Amino acid sequence: MYIRQPSLFSFEELLKYEPETRLSKIFNTLDLTIFCKGFSRRQSRGPKGHDKVAMFRALIGKLIYGISNNVKLVERLNSDLRFRYDCGFDIIKRPPSESTFSRFFAQIAEDEVLQKFFDQLVKDCLKSEMIKTTNLAIDSSEIDAYEKTVPKSKCPDDGKHANWGAKRDSKGNQITWFGYKIHACVDADSELPIAITVTPASNHDSTETIPLLDKTTKIAPKPDYVMLDMGYDQKDIYEYIHHKLQAQAIIPLNKRGEKLPPEGLDTNRTPVCSLGFKMVYWGCDKKNGTLKFRCPHVLGKVNCPLGSNWCSNSNYGCVVKKNIKEDLRNFCIPHRDTKNWKNLYDKRTSVERLFARLKEHLSANNLKVRGIKKVTTHLLLCCITLILGTIAINAVNTKVA
């Protein structure tokens, strides 16, 4: 007769002898207090007694391990006891079904609990100085729809569904897609998202800039610099950043078919002398917002046939001062034609690296849902997972140090 021997160790005790998984490292640093408060007691348990917090963890694990859909997620929960345990499910009971996960996802898409959880994560990162808001970068990226493509003339114009978008890539090639856009405001130093919005693909980038900065400043301190590409070269954006945020917009000029620069200025808005020589930038007064430029002949940059006395009797040479308040688009601190300005603008690529990580490692562009609410929920989950992974890595590095 075969008699099954009793187990010497419990499942939890056996796990102590196994290496810690990526999922457990993340959940050990995860505070789900905000997420739990988003559900009432009546909602805290599903129809089959499935814990909503465990289901939320499973959605995070789905992104971490690159599980493409809910069918494969349920298969993984059924076949991998360690994964089921890390998510917080009872290893004896059956995990939730695919339809249960779909209903749960629809529920959090209709609620604001996920947005509150994301905002709280950002605030926690600000307190720990993992995120700093001195330098912000803003940009958008295309997201392909899960819906069936339809002609542009039949796309609904209600702001809730996918439609056609077009933009030029970094090489100047025109690309079109059917879907959505994710607009992100990113800490340029940590390359972590602070705020995101999602729109149909046809929405222009510049229309989402001010709402995005509004969301950012509600949870984070005001920045010193905001870096954007030339698609955001709009007067209202310069004015909002300068007047409302007391910050400086770092945006390349979009010439918009401009044949000649304004009189007395070159293409980078550096003043030119009466003979057309570019004057030399000679520093700024940040307090007063004044830029100073000097005669290039006196400084040995050019050999003016008329000499410096043509413009000024002073040995110091001709001096031109420009206050950035005269024209916030043309003048900025630091001056657009300086190495400091170029170094700041180079930080804008941090938002492009964020999009690359979200798409390549967290399935941001692998939608299995329809409608802007569910797409926003999917992308918020991707951003939350990215921040949680960064928190876990920093926690491990702190222990090692």
Plain-language structure description:
Strands 1, 2, 3, 4, 5 and 6 form a six-stranded mixed beta sheet that branches. Helices cover 36% and strands 15% of the residues. The model is unreliable at 40-46 (pLDDT under 50). It starts with 10 loop residues before the first helix and ends with a helix. The chain is elongated and about 90 Å long. It has helices spanning 11-15, 22-28, 33-37, 52-64, 70-79, 81-87, 98-110, 113-127, 209-219, 235-244, 339-346, 349-361, 372-400, and strands at residues 135-144, 163-168, 174-187, 193-200, 225-227, 248-250, 280-285, 290-294, 319-323. It is α+β, with helices and mostly antiparallel strands. The chain has 13 helices and nine strands. Helix 7 (98-110) packs across helix 13 (372-400).
In terms of topology, how is this protein built?
Elements: H1 11-15, H2 22-28, H3 33-37, H4 52-64, H5 70-79, H6 81-87, H7 98-110, H8 113-127, E1 135-144, E2 163-168, E3 174-187, E4 193-200, H9 209-219, E5 225-227, H10 235-244, E6 248-250, E7 280-285, E8 290-294, E9 319-323, H11 339-346, H12 349-361, H13 372-400
Parallel strand pairs: 1-5, 5-6
Antiparallel strand pairs: 1-3, 2-3, 3-4, 7-8, 8-9
